Amino acid sequence: MSNKSVDAMTPQELAEACAHELYRRDNATRQAGMTLEAVEPGKSVVRMTVRDDMVQGHKTCHGGYMFALADSAFAFACNTYNEPTVAIGCTIDYVAPALLGDVLTATATERSRSGRTGNYDVDIHNQEGRLIAMFHGKSYKVRGQILEHAQASKQENSND
Amino acid sequence: MSNKSVDAMTPQELAEACAHELYRRDNATRQAGMTLEAVEPGKSVVRMTVRDDMVQGHKTCHGGYMFALADSAFAFACNTYNEPTVAIGCTIDYVAPALLGDVLTATATERSRSGRTGNYDVDIHNQEGRLIAMFHGKSYKVRGQILEHAQASKQENSND
Amino acid sequence: MSNKSVDAMTPQELAEACAHELYRRDNATRQAGMTLEAVEPGKSVVRMTVRDDMVQGHKTCHGGYMFALADSAFAFACNTYNEPTVAIGCTIDYVAPALLGDVLTATATERSRSGRTGNYDVDIHNQEGRLIAMFHGKSYKVRGQILEHAQASKQENSND
Amino acid sequence: MSNKSVDAMTPQELAEACAHELYRRDNATRQAGMTLEAVEPGKSVVRMTVRDDMVQGHKTCHGGYMFALADSAFAFACNTYNEPTVAIGCTIDYVAPALLGDVLTATATERSRSGRTGNYDVDIHNQEGRLIAMFHGKSYKVRGQILEHAQASKQENSND
Q1: What is the pTM of this model?
Q2: Which domains are present in chain B?
Q3: Are D75 and D8 contacting, i.e. CB atoms less than 8 angstroms apart?
Q4: Best mutation site among A85, A86, A88, A111 for testing chain C: the one with the most C CBs within 10 Å?
Q5: Predicted interface score ipTM higher than 0.85
Q6: C141 has pLDDT over 80
Q7: Which chains, if any, share at least 3 CB pairs under 8 A with chain D?
Q8: pLDDT tier, A56 (very low <50, low <70, confident <90, very high otherwise)
């Protein structure tokens, strides 16, 4: 990742720096084995393989893990502007079951962003390209900056 | 748990037998440390402590785990009639953050049930009784029975 | 309605003054024949009879009119503090059909309110007390005051 | 409209015949001045001009009428297969206000359809192409046929 100051970054560099910082801090996303495949301003792609600890009866993925995957993709997409946002409400609609071993890809797209709120759609497909679930998230901008602390700690490190 | 046949159970016994059978099969719910505190026809109470692997930045619980808790309570509540149901759509609204170590209690209540579909509300409160999130789940009845296989395997075991 | 200044009103007087001002301005609600039955801080009850111009095939009420009824009850409930709020997202779940001539009562209840956003539940029942639909609305506080203009115009009138 | 029997229709002819039959029966949609601009299997486009009886304070369109527009587009799209379906749950997210005189276009797209349920997205844009609201509807197939009665009555008429 770039050592550029935040102000000197292009929108794409800023989106990547924010996403990587969020990923670093986010135990839940990392421990579920999710990988950040791509990010750009207002967009992200996150992947997760359905593990044994994620299934319920009939070896189908627990809805909570499908939701968590979509929710993480949503979080990466709406936090690409160095303005921290939180989810205030989400919906998920299940279309087809995800099974043990399936590789699920969540693609998040910004639909709107104005004032403090934004709307994001996330589609989850399996490894065969079949639509598994559709998610919608509403974001709310809170105070502060995502990279502030990260940049500060990098500067400290660069003094070593 | 009772060795009664399904037909001889009261609605309350049936609700408990179904919930315990689902819990037994459900890796995801057990591995998240959720405990089933109470169940009755159309209702359930499920508890979860926010662990280190469930938090994201700022030590707040990942939305996916709050969703998973509510989703499990919903599943126990809508599967109390020995008719297997699945979620077809859910919404969650976040009211206040849940923090590392918080003990979250999800209370699921049936709002309607007719034909193949049902509607359930789930409220999540923390250990101080503060409302953390509100969840709504829509259920859809599929074929089969929940306890069929379980009863069969018990009979096999009793032959040992 | 009271001629008291806004500052001198009790919360209940303020809730009533806001609701009546909103009702006065709201062509859509009035022309659908909705009546405001009760209001208090964070709560409202609104009633509507299903008319011939609200039905679709099979003489059932168009979902849009059931939504409009719930949405109006939501608006009255979240605008009881003299702080103008708008809806940013709503959900509705249909439980039973409403028929031509049915008298529908929507009861709105505040579930949370903090910062700029709030969450409100609205249940619609028919004249027999049967649950017809469940609505959830998320509010967002915008700038200004509800009664500001109203009070100004009253003062002008009182100069006559 | 075609005098063909239902069995002889192409999917496109069937979609058009179903939509026109629904439109004919639907007082609420017609009286709101909505026009059906296009229909094909799983899709529809519906248009509505914001009238004086649809606005609330500040001359903005009441959320109920935006919902009704989206809901009608959803109904036309999910009823294109001669299998009657009803809405069981819907969500709407408001992005920008619609004003008195605005011409709103709702475009409904099928996202999934299997078993008895389906999922449809509807976007509402204004005359300048700006996104105004996003709607999601879940459909449920009920018994019967849409064109059955219509065809029967046509046959009766053709005997005159």
Answers
A1: 0.91
A2: 10-158 (3.10.129.10)
A3: no
A4: A88
A5: yes
A6: yes
A7: A, B, C
A8: confident
